[in-house]
Each structure stands twice: as structure tokens, then as C-alpha cells.
């Protein structure tokens, strides 16, 4: 642990040097806002490394996220707002405060009660009036829906079982088919997606992860289709749908 702290301290000093008058012109020019897109990009690259189950890549990408945290903290320190130490203090105090079953005398029955207690403590800290307060609208749409549904479920607004959520999907699918206008169809399709998120939540899945995995499978299989067609002297765009389906089924069997 002492060695890890020393190595992090060395990284902090590197970032400070980069932001110093004797440092890098590009790094000195950066602001909280200019690094916003980079922070998001690095976070997604961490997700990709996790999906690929690549520990070397995960180590590298986590380092890039850590760099973003240190850069943002150093920018704030130079403007007199807060330091990286303040960031560490804030998260440490939050973890201790929201884990009274570890650092206090609270007794819990399991993970579900831990989550309920966490949300209750969080609501009290921020003085929230609604169970939905604090869910960021800037989240990807599937994640936003999933987070709102979880909050609503915490106060009892939920299907007793996944069967009710599945019935709702069937109902929304019928409404998509019957929608009389493009605008109505878009609204009903949104309701269908929202109901599918509910099914995922009831099954204990994160819909963002499920869709990402499905999209990855589609990409891999389509590339196999292209490769197989090319090897046989074919171009996918010139083939009828029934032959494309044959290539697709072959790709599914191969991965």
C-alpha cells in the first residue's frame, strides 16, 4: 500500500509539472470544459477493455481515467477551488458516511438493504424531495431509464414479477403497430423501449450492457459474412436477401 501511494504521488507531481510554467504548452491551455470530451472517451475505453476482458488494456485505460481526474484536480487547484487531496477527502468521507454497517453500528440483512440505506442517506444529504432527484439526464437513454425505474422501484412502484413487465412489452408492441401517425409511432416506440428496460431490470440485467453485447455480436457476425462472401468472390450488396440470410446463419454458427 505504501508503495502504491508513493507511485500515485509521483504521478501527481508529473501532472503538476506539465501544468507548470516550465511544463507543456498544450497541458497548460486545458480547462475543465476542454477536457470534458476526453473524460467521456476515456471512460468508454475502460468499458471496452472490460468487455474484452483484457487486463493489460484495462490497466492502461484506468490510468488514462486517473490522469483525467488528476488533470481536472490540478486545474481546480491552480484556480484556488480545490485540490486532489480535497477530492480524496470528499470520497473517503462519503464512503464512511454511507457504509454505517461497516464503520458504524448499523446491522443489515444483505445487499438489497445496503442499497436502500445508501439511497436514503444520499437523499437526506442532498435534501431531495423526489425519489428521482439526482438521476442525471445526461446519461445514455437506456441508462437513464434504468436508473429512474430503479429509483421508482425503491419506493414500491414496480411490477411484482417480470411477468407484468413482459405483458407491458406485448401491450406496447401492439400500440406501435396500431399508431396512426409517424409522431405517435415514435412515442409508442419510446414506450416500448422503456418497457424493455423494465424487463431487463426485473431480470437483474443492465440494458446498456445487454445492448452493447448484442451490438458486438452483430458486428462480429457481419464481418464474418463479409469475409466469407469475399472469399467466395461475392459482394454482399449484390446478393438477394435469402442468400444474405444464408451467410448470416453461417456466421452465427461460427461465432
How would you sum up this structure, described in words?
There is one protein chain. The chain is mostly helical. It has four domains: 96 residues, Helix Hairpins (Orthogonal Bundle); 31 residues, no CATH class; 76 residues, MazG-like (Helix Hairpins, Orthogonal Bundle), CATH 1.10.287.1080; 45 residues, no CATH class. It is 74% helix and 0% strand. The longest helix is centred in the last third of the chain and has 25 residues. The protein is extended and about 65 Å long. The chain starts with a helix and ends with a helix.
Could you give a quick summary of the protein structure above?
The chain has 255 residues and is mostly helical.
What is the secondary structure topology, with strand pairs?
Blueprint: H1 2-19, H2 25-29, H3 36-52, H4 55-78, H5 84-97, H6 100-103, H7 111-126, H8 141-154, H9 162-178, H10 182-202, H11 207-231, H12 241-253
Helix pairs in contact: 1-4, 3-4, 8-10, 9-10, 11-12
Structure characteristics:
Helix Hairpins, about 75% helix, about 260 residues
Estimate percent helicity: over 70%
CATH architecture of the largest domain: Orthogonal Bundle
Beta-strand percentage range: under 5%
Average residue-wise pLDDT: 93
User: Biggest β-sheet, characterized?
Assistant: none
Let me know the number of strands.
0
Let me know the CATH homologous superfamily of the largest domain: MazG-like
How many angstroms does the end-to-end distance come to? 42 Å
What is the CATH topology assignment of the largest domain? Helix Hairpins
**The top level CATH class name of the largest domain:** Mainly Alpha
Which descriptor suits the 3D outline? extended
Low-confidence stretches: none
Amino acid at each position: 500500500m505504501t508503495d502504491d501511494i508513493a507511485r500515485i504521488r509521483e504521478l501527481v507531481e508529473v501532472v503538476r509539472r506539465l501544468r507548470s510554467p516550465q511544463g507543456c504548452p498544450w497541458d497548460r491551455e486545458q480547462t475543465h470544459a476542454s477536457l470534458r470530451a476526453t473524460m467521456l472517451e476515456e471512460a468508454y475505453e475502460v468499458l471496452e477493455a472490460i468487455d474484452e476482458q483484457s487486463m493489460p488494456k484495462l490497466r492502461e485505460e484506468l490510468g488514462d481515467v486517473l490522469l483525467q481526474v488528476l488533470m481536472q484536480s490540478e486545474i481546480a487547484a491552480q484556480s484556488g477551488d480545490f485540490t486532489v487531496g480535497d477530492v480524496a477527502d470528499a470520497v473517503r468521507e462519503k464512503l464512511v458516511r454511507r457504509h454505517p454497517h461497516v464503520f458504524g453500528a448499523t446491522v443489515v440483512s444483505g445487499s438489497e438493504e445496503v442499497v436502500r440505506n445508501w439511497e436514503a442517506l444520499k437523499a437526506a444529504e442532498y435534501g431531495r424531495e423526489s425519489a428521482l432527484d439526482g438521476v442525471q439526464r445526461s446519461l445514455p437513454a437506456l441508462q437513464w431509464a434504468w436508473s429512474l425505474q430503479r429509483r421508482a422501484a425503491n419506493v414500491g412502484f414496480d411490477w411484482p414479477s417480470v411477468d407484468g413487465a413482459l405483458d407491458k412489452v406485448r401491450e406496447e408492441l401492439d400500440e406501435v403497430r396500431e399508431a396512426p401517425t409517424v409522431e405517435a409511432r415514435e412515442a409508442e416506440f419510446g414506450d416500448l423501449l422503456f418497457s424493455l428496460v423494465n424487463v431487463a431490470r426485473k431480470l437483474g440485467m443492465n440494458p446498456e450492457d445487454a445492448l452493447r453485447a448484442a451490438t458486438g455480436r452483430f458486428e462480429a457476425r457481419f464481418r464474418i459474412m463479409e469475409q466469407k462472401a469475399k472469399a467466395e468472390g461475392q459482394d454482399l450488396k449484390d446478393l438477394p436477401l435469402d442468400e444474405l440470410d444464408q451467410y448470416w446463419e453461417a456466421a452465427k454458427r461460427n461465432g
